Every structure is written in C-alpha cells, then in structure tokens.
Amino acid sequence: MAYKVKLGISARHIHLSLGDFEKLFGLGAVLHPVKALRQPGQYASEERVDIFTSTGAIHGLRILGPVRQQTQIELAPADARKIGLNPPVRDSGDLAGTPGVTIAGPQGQVVISEGVIIASRHIHLDTATAAELKVKDKDLVKARIKGKRCVVFEDVLIRVRDDFMSEMHIDTDEGNACLAENEEMVEVILSAARQY
After folding, report:
1. pLDDT, tens digit, for every residue of 70-119?
2. Which residues contact 159 (CB under 8 A, 6 or more apart)?
3. What is the CA radius of gyration of the chain?
4. Which end of the chain is less packed: N or C, by CB atoms within 10 Å?
5. Which CATH number describes the domain made up of 121-189?
6. pLDDT tens per residue across span 124-162
7. Closest CA to 87 of 63, 59, 115
8. Any idea where the domains of the chain sit in the sequence?
C-alpha cells in the first residue's frame, strides 16, 4: 500500500529554550514570526544567531519558534563538517551525548554542552491518519521521491500526534542529492513498515 505526503526540505536551524533565548536576546525579548510552517504553531522567526566551534562558525542561523524545553540545533552533514562536528542522526529531542557549540546573539553568548544533531528523516502524521494507514509513532517506513534522480529513502521515522499535518522532512543534503523540491509529493511505502 502507498500513501503520498508533501515534502519539506529543512534548512539548518535552531530551536532555543526560553532561558537561552533571553541570554542571547535579553530579558523580555520575543520571537517575531516571519513565516508559518506547515506544522501547527511552528514558525520561522526573524531572529538569527551565530554558532561557533574551535574550528569554524555558521552565521545567521534561523531560529524556529516557539521556544522549547531544550536548545537544539539541526544541521545537514555538510554544515556540520564545515565547523568540525560529526553529530549523530537523531530524532528531535534525543540530545544525550550529542556535540555542543557556542551560540552568539545580540545580547550575549551561551555555551551548550550538547544539542547538535542531524535530524532523522521523518514523516509527521495525525493520529487518525496513522491509524488508517496502520502505522504507529516511531515506526520506520520507506519513501520514494520520483523525478530526475529518483531515490527510495529507507528508515524514515514516523512521528504521530493529534495536531500534526501530513508531511515528510529531509535535510538539504538529502534534498540536493535527489534534486527534490519543497512540496512535491512523496510516496510512502507502508508495506515496509517496522518498529524503530
């Protein structure tokens, strides 16, 4: 059985905790949304930060809102190599044992001891759709992107929540490798589903 979802290609970005955000931008500062993302309540903000390691820097890293419980940076492998990091591929929020960096904002700096990941390719589904498709949160499936450089991605993580909109996320390295475009339709190969 196949099911199609829209593709979202995620550029490098950062999610900040409230405490880290206020250290970087000042007490009482707020994020200013510039673009709503497909997942409800999520947005790209006007604010950006710089991140540093001992061997490199990335400037102008976009903050995605709203604030989170823990600061998390999502990079493509090429971004990570540029600053001398080799972060693991992880599900969002699974940050134990990941590399840290120094983050600089207009009002200060924050050093995080962990928080940099390469995000697992994943598909957001609402609870009703997941039940209809007979998949569960943390299942793994395959997904086919057709086009000039057709590819089948394996180990695509299913994420299920009541308010999710159906969408697959990959990073810019993955998107560039298969010449994919934002919002093109991706075929989910459900017959390959297995537990994470």
Report:
1. 999 999 999 999 999 999 999 999 999 999 999 999 999 999 999 999 99
2. 91, 122, 123, 124, 125, 137, 138
3. 17
4. N
5. 2.40.40.20
6. 999 999 999 999 999 999 999 997 899 999 999 999 999
7. 115
8. 11-119, 121-189
